[in-house]
Design brief:
2 copies of one chain form a homodimer. By secondary structure, chain A is mainly alpha-helical. Chain A is built from 8 helices and 3 strands, in the order H-E-H-H-E-E-H-H-H-H-H. In chain A, helix 2 packs across helix 3 and helix 6 runs antiparallel to helix 7. Chains A and B meet through helix 1, helix 4, helix 5, helix 6 and helix 7 of A and helix 1, helix 4, helix 5, helix 6 and helix 7 of B. Chain A binds a DNA duplex through helix 3.
DNA sequence: TCCGCCATGTAAGTTGTTACATGATTAG
DNA sequence: CTAATCATGTAACAACTTACATGGCGGA
């Protein structure tokens, strides 16, 4: 289970299950998500395998917390995973499937609506990642070239998201263009003039 | 379950479970995969719900086949799904997680190896998709602008894969560059001269 | 005859989700 | 006092994977 290793990785800093959930929601959610109902049992399982240890901590506010940290064995396990080469799973993308089967509706307008909705979602996510990046850039003077190793790797991961989402937005824009062209092969110029397309919200190329 | 709708979509043409598996492996695998052990029970479930019907067919070679096709109700269900707007799940990408936690190894060389392995896998997949596209282009004179609606949508889906994989390759190349720069800030030109990088296998921009 | 492909299935296990249950503390 | 947030957990279900079981048929 990848989640086990991700928890081992995150627990370089001691944290409770609740803390970890917040990290998933705010920091690493763009490449891995997890629910509390999955986090808690997994932490217990890892402790049973002696890859984590825990202690109860009296919290200032709220009830008792259980704070976990990695053991030497946990760190070894993490390293073995890290050195084992990449795991590229096959991505199941329901939205591509939907597009693929849209001809069953026999309505190019529906295709266009689907693509526009997708375009908007991708753009929103892209903006969220860009905000993360910007916040970082503004709060850390070492960004990007003088960053310590840990932060440098986070940057690479973040840039994966940026590259990927940008490609998604560009694909959606391009597909919308192709569908419009197909729906109305004659009046391309007329339309292009009349309607300043959404794709005018140009997404600048990513740089470092 | 998306798989149910995908089967309904694929069964616009009658097919057996075994046939469908081959379609997953050769045609739609780049956005959805499925095992026979999942396909067979799902087909049975859909038939019980009267969204599919089946008949036994004597095959020329091999044992009896069970050929499924959609019913009117099945087609309605598919349309409802298609009109319900996009489903963009959160992608869990173990390889990004791995990169994110690489600092635990404290070895930039390991990061470089990971990125190179990723680069190669992405490039291989990209080539596979391009072959699919090329084969198509060569065998169908209507490609790309005169394609019938069904094929046009397949093209959009395929281009999603092309855009996405290309972004992945570009990200990997760019990350490799950044890591090298970081590992050896002084000797950039020297190295760039000595080693014609893998990234020289330039991946041309996608066009229609 | 044996191997590979055709063809359908079951069983057991993993991973992940949604819904539910419980209770402490604190800010308004 | 009451709502929000902190905090931990269980149960039931859904989706998917890997391994196993069975057998026909055709070509080397």
């Amino acid at each position: 289970m990848s989640l086990e290793y991700i928890l081992l990785g995150l627990l370089g800093e001691p944290a409770s299950g609740y803390d970890l959930k917040k990290i998933f929601d705010t920091e690493v959610g763009y490449f891995w998500a997890a629910e509390l109902s999955q986090i808690y049992p997994t932490l217990k399982r890892l402790e049973k395998q002696h890859l984590l240890r825990s202690h109860h901590a009296a919290a200032k506010r709220g009830p008792r917390r259980i704070v976990y940290e990695t053991t030497a064995a946990g760190n070894r396990a993490l390293r073995v995973w890290l050195q084992a080469g990449p795991e590229v799973g096959d991505e199941r993308q329901a939205f591509v499937a939907k597009l693929y089967f849209m001809p069953a509706l026999d309505d190019l307008g529906a295709t266009l609506r689907l693509l526009s909705a997708l375009r908007q979602r991708f753009a929103t996510r892209l903006e969220a990642l860009r905000s993360l990046e910007k916040l970082w850039e503004e709060s850390d003077p070492r960004y990007p070239n003088e960053l310590p190793t840990a932060e440098f790797h986070k940057l690479l991961a973040l840039r994966k998201g940026l590259f990927s989402l940008q490609a998604h937005v560009e694909w959606a824009d391009d597909s919308i263009r192709l569908v419009r062209q197909r729906a109305d092969p004659a009046g391309v110029d007329r339309k292009a003039k009349a309607k300043p397309e959404k794709s005018d919200q140009r997404t600048a190329k990513v740089r470092v």
